[in-house]
TrEMBL record:
InterPro entries: Dev_Signal_Modulators, EGF, EGF_extracell, WIF, WIF_sf. This is Putative wnt inhibitory factor 1. SUPFAM superfamilies: EGF/Laminin. Disulfide bonds join 245-255, 263-272. It comes from Stichopus japonicus (Sea cucumber). One of its GO terms (cellular component) is cell surface.
Length: 323
């Protein structure tokens, strides 16, 4: 025991040994910090796995986000397929054929319906039908992807367009039928899931189409049901391409926007009604044109600087009379 105490005291009194102890403490603290970081990372990864769940057939989801649901005046959000189960209110299967049950009304100014979807790896899709009830009113629906392919494993937007033809006005209908299936032996099947069950969705879109104006109306003009531009205040013409100023612009001024004139050199004012003369005719006359003065009695010259010596020998006024 005495040897132990002696060594301890000797070590404590040695400055170099004190530094070694401090270094060991710092190394120990770094080790604890590293273990803490690793533990936190493991907890985060494990929590993520628990929240996402296993990649099974029940992970197939297709839905309308809150913005799209508001466009269609629906509750938000709306799941067309949730955990592999199609909405009973959307479509039904009759003899192997998907029949639409739901018809959505798409506002006139909305061209596309955005649908979000995702599925475990191994799911494929195929658009079985993209049709229009009347091609004179509405073209066939369009999609921003191939007609057949694999469903993305991460949330992605499927954009389906319902373009009006613009040839006439009326109510058009578009039909979408989408088949969904899995490739054999590619994913784990959840217990109790019927692998023979038909998967897919079918729905219709109703849209109020209007005849288009060709070329389109300018300056925010509105094309009516007959293909005629209804112009906003201050514009006129077949395409609302002409600008109107009241009063009209004077002295060769150009109406730029409603009520605003662009004046030529030598004129100003709201409607270019005021002529401009250097020196303002020196206070001895009225400016009646660009650098042209109508001088008072007794004065003459371009800028009214010449004093008349006798009556009637100089400038004429605009009426042709001498003064």
């Amino acid at each position: 025991m005495g040897l132990f105490v002696f060594d301890f005291c000797t070590m404590s009194s040695n400055p170099d040994h004190s530094n070694v102890i401090e270094d060991r403490k710092e190394i120990k603290m770094r080790g604890l910090y590293a273990r803490l970081v690793i533990t936190c990372a493991i907890v985060i990864i494990w929590t993520t796995v628990l929240m996402t769940g296993p990649q099974s057939e029940y992970g197939l989801e297709i839905w309308l986000d809150s913005r799209q649901s508001q466009v269609l005046d629906l509750d938000i959000p709306v799941y067309l397929i949730s955990n592999g189960e199609p909405s009973a209110l959307l479509s039904r299967t009759e003899g192997g054929a998907l029949t639409p049950v739901q018809r959505f009304k798409l506002p006139r100014d909305i061209e596309h319906l955005n649908i979000t979807w995702r599925a475990p790896a191994g799911f494929q899709y195929e658009f079985e039908e993209l049709t229009s009830s009347d091609h004179v009113l509405m073209r066939a629906p369009t999609v921003n992807i191939l007609k057949r392919g694999m469903i993305p494993t991460q949330p992605n937007v499927l954009k389906i367009g319902f373009p009006c033809s613009g040839e006439t006005s009326g109510i058009g209908y578009g039909k979408v039928v989408l088949r969904l299936s899995r490739l054999p032996n590619t994913i784990e099947i959840a217990p109790g899931y019927d692998v023979q069950k038909e998967l897919g969705l079918a729905f219709e879109i109703e849209k109020d189409c209007r005849k288009s104006c060709h070329p389109p109306c300018q300056h925010e003009g509105i094309c009516d049901d007959w293909g005629v531009c209804i112009c906003p205040e201050g514009y006129y013409g077949p395409l609302c391409e002409q600008v109107f100023c009241q009063p009209k612009c004077h002295n060769g001024g150009t109406c730029f926007t409603p009520g605003i004139c662009v004046c030529p050199t030598g004129f100003n004012g709201a409607y270019c009604q005021k002529a401009m003369c250097t020196g303002n005719c020196n206070g001895r006359g009225t400016c009646i044109g660009h650098e042209k003065c109508y001088c008072r009695k007794g004065w003459s010259g371009q800028d009214c600087l010449i004093q008349c010596e006798r009556r009637g020998s100089f400038e004429k006024n605009p009426t042709g009379e001498r003064f």
